[in-house]
Design brief:
Largest sheet: 3 strands, antiparallel
Number of strands: 8
Structural class: alpha+beta
Order of helices and strands: EEEEEHEEEHHHH
Helix content: 40-55%
Shape: elongated
């Protein structure tokens, strides 16, 4: 599950992207509820916002509105691929990033589950499907094999009498 974002700081001076190691300007520092931080580049930010909006994000920008009494109001302007303009408060912006990250995680888990299902699928009919020919073992031979199997298992579990089994000396 994703962690709740409590603050997003835009670093206009930029820096090295932690994933690519390349210089990028600007970068965004996300602060989470468990006092951890993470630095994201523009591509990741747009990816998370796109997942939250269910539309591709063309670009986004942090903007300020200055009141007559010199108070600054911060908002985020997000332009979607169809040029729809969405203005978000900082809280709404953080929520969108959080939702986008959750959706990305859900997609990742769905991909992993699909891969696991593929691995569970039989690869070869000869190896994974029941035999159509009858068994060559008679019922009395089957009983004898089962008794021998139980005896071997009991002997293997008795460590004091069978130290050679534990050492791998059969």
């Amino acid at each position: 599950m994703s962690k709740k974002i409590i603050n997003v700081i835009q670093m206009d001076s930029g820096g090295d992207n932690p994933k690519s190691g390349l210089f990028e300007q600007p970068l965004w520092q996300l602060h989470f509820e468990d006092d951890t931080t993470r630095i994201l580049g523009k591509v990741k930010m747009e990816e998370y916002l796109s997942k939250a909006f269910d539309k591709m994000v063309h670009h986004f920008k942090k903007k300020y509105f200055t009141m007559k009494d010199d108070k600054k109001i911060t908002f985020w302007n997000v332009i979607l691929i169809d040029y729809e303009d969405v203005s978000l408060s900082p809280n709404q912006f953080r929520d969108k990033l959080y939702i986008g990250h959750q959706r990305k995680d859900e997609e990742k888990y769905k991909e992993l589950e699909a891969k696991l299902e593929e691995k569970k699928a039989p690869q070869s009919e000869i190896l994974f499907h029941p035999q159509t020919t009858p068994s060559t073992t008679t019922p009395s031979e089957r009983e004898e094999l089962d008794k021998f199997r139980k005896k071997v298992i009991e002997e293997a579990t008795n460590e004091a009498e069978n130290p050679h089994i534990l050492k791998g000396e059969y």
